[in-house]
Design a protein that fits this description.
Layout (H helix, E strand, L loop, with lengths): L3 H7 L2 E6 L2 E6 L9 H26 L4 H4 L13 E5 L6 H9 L3 E8 L2 H13 L6 E5 L2 H7 L6 E6 L6 H10 E11 L2 H4 L4 H8 L9 H18 L3 E11 L2 E10 L1 H4 L6 E7 L5 E5 L1 E5 L5 E5 L16 E8 L6 H13 L7 H13 L8 E2 H7 L7 H10 L4 E2 L7 E4 L3 H14 L12 H7 L17 H5 L22 H7 L19 H4 L15 H9 L1
Parallel strand pairs: 3-4, 3-6, 4-5, 6-7
Antiparallel strand pairs: 1-2, 7-9, 8-9, 10-11, 10-14, 12-13, 15-17, 16-17
GO molecular function: tRNA (guanine(26)-N2)-dimethyltransferase activity; tRNA binding; zinc ion binding
InterPro entries: SAM-dependent_MTases_sf, Trm1, tRNA_met_Trm1_C, Znf_CCCH
GO cellular component, one term: nucleus
Amino acid sequence: MATVVEKASENNLNFIKEGKAEAFQPKNVFYNPVQEFNRDITIAVINEFAKETIQNKNCKKVENDVDQANVELKVGVKCDNGIKILEGLSASGLRSMRFGLEIAGVKEIVTNDVSKWAVDIIDKNIEHNKLQHLVMSNLGDASMLLYQNKTEKSFDVVDLDPYGSPAQFLDAAVQAVRDGGLLCVTATDMAVLCGNAGEKCAATYGAMSVRMKCCHEEALRILLQCIETHANRYSRYIEPVISLSVDFYVRVFVKIHTGAKKVKESVTKKSMFYHCVGCGTVTLQKLGIKEPTEGNNFKFLPAHGPPVGSSCDHCNSRHVIGGPVWSDPIHSIDFIDRVLTSVSTNLQYLNTSKRISGLLTVAKEELQDIPFYYVLDDLCSTVHCSPLSLEKFNSAILNAGHKVSLSHAARNSKKTDAPSKFIWDIMRTWVKQNPIKDNRRATGSIASIILDKEIQNNISFTPHPQAIPASRNKGLVRFQPNPESNWGPKPRPSLNNEDKQKKFQGKRKHKQNTVDTKQYSCKRFKAGQCELGEECKYSHKLEECSLEDKT
């Protein structure tokens, strides 16, 4: 008897095992094993969200009777009081199969794709994994399906993992998630979000991206402000619970809430930013502020600015303006704690569980009220000095009474509430103690202008007991080695003939009427220069040639 793998090969299919699911997948369908981390952390997040949702529903029913509210949830079993999940862009449906087999407290999973051929594969995978009671396939456009379910049929969780930008689906998605529901969004167009095509970013996401060292966090904050802007149009707003920059994409998990009063505060959660093209210093400019009035009310006003002069205070270079970006916290510490507990106890079977724990621990340590970060290597490169260690840099900040943390988005990245003047004073003090050669600080250079300024703060590199973050001492995994060669974003999947015909509306099904060129004489033949003979597309008959000449 042929094995499952052999049967798949006979039908020109790949057979994939991931987590607890198995899936058939056509060989030309987009699949990237590196994205297993994306699927693993999504399962961890939705698992925790499902527990929270069902707990809240049960608590309301039994009036906070905790004993009755704590219902045991099982994976693979339909929960009548559970959550409803939509995977809008499914391809083979592997993600949905894993949802059904690895998430407890699920009522229904809708697995959608626009390709009939892909939906046939989804149906095969549903049957193979015996999930007919939980997973339902759907053939249709993702945006249209979301719009059709924006009222009483709304979803508890909507997962969007498109190829490239998710922007075209966001307007429908923020309406199709129930009040308090979870929206999971991936964006892989990092070149656009990180400033290589600012005009494209402005057109797609409504924000100007700028090339800078902290561009991966910039990408996260641009995506969050885009989702917030779409939600605000419908008196809704977002609450980011986890926002991550991973490998070649960003992944955000946000709760969608409804409330016209809270929507007004959106203007205080967004900022423009000024980026110095010389030293790389970033300065934020809030779009709006709120001031208290009588009672518990507030009034919202335009923010005061600009926060910078016509040139940079540190290196005299010009500024470029980017944004708007989301400038409020991008994580919920309480939610991260619960996910970490779940991963360490119930989800250890996940292949990327160690990386999930490492990345979320660093995200939890981040200073939540500080947008953007410095890159220590870049600071040293700007003034052409020898490397400054993590411990000494952190100690200098902590000894002065400021706060500092790592960022999950980049190696050697530093978030701090210390002003930029203090940061450059650290570098001046370091160079003073470790002089650089004169030819590395040429007159008029960025390094020379920065280092020639007087040190205004007392900098101490005395080791501070909290200089080394706990995540470093634990040796947690944040950046895993490359899993395979050519592991980055894969090419867009090719269309089959049926999908091509649908895309081009049948215009290419029949050849267009062509003109018979044999009715025209060959000018090269008349000149005695054509050597094609009967293969020439023009006529070589002398009678026709002479008749045409007479006319």
